[in-house]
């Protein structure tokens, strides 16, 4: 099972419980297991903006925060199209999604998980960093930090991330390359 960000938190919750405990492996990309005051503050600010109807501002802030610390998003004058989805619905989605992670602490959810876990996160992530990813409890679980990476490790260093994923999948399949 693969989970990214909020989806990765959900994957941890499900795999660590009875629902999907038989899942043989988890690949987590920038997936938090524990929120701290800084993460709560940043997510809360974006949720507040979206809830106040400032959806474009919330999205701009998110665009900045998913980049490695010190980088800023390149902006275009064109608004990002969400198809036929109203601004109110977009705001609701952002508000609910960001607030779901407030105070999150599922850091021990994978304590008894028997499957393999690979958690990948960016060294310079402004949202999910080393202090947020699931702890390593067994030899079947590992975390990989992408140097200078942000919330999008695949975009930040695709070859490195693919190498770790390939190794993870080959070990899970019982092959050794």
Principal-axes geometry comes out as globular
Please, what is the average pLDDT? 92
Quickly count the domains. Answer: 2
Which blocks of ≥5 consecutive residues have pLDDT under 50? none
Count all strands and give the number: 4
Rg value: 17 Å
> Termini separation (Å)?
22 Å
Q: Biggest β-sheet: count, sense, barrel? A: 4 strands, parallel
InterPro entries: AB_hydrolase_fold
Walk me through what this model shows:
With 177 residues, this protein is of the alpha/beta class. It folds into 2 domains: 102 residues, Rossmann fold, CATH 3.40.50; 64 residues, no CATH class. The protein is 40% helix and 12% strand. It is built from 6 helices and 4 strands. It has a 4-stranded parallel β-sheet with strand order 1-2-3-4, with helices on both faces. Helix 2 packs antiparallel against helix 3 and helix 2 packs antiparallel against helix 4. It is globular, with a radius of gyration of 17 Å. The two termini are 22 Å apart. The model has no long low-confidence stretch (mean pLDDT 92).
What are the defining features of this structure?
single chain, 177 residues, alpha/beta, Rossmann fold, four-stranded parallel sheet, 6 helices, AB_hydrolase_fold
Summarize the helices and strands and which ones pair or pack.
Elements: E1 2-4, H1 6-16, E2 25-29, H2 37-51, H3 55-65, H4 87-100, E3 116-122, E4 141-146, H5 153-156, H6 158-173
Parallel strand pairs: 1-2, 2-3, 3-4
Helix pairs in contact: 2-3, 2-4
InterPro entries: AB_hydrolase_fold
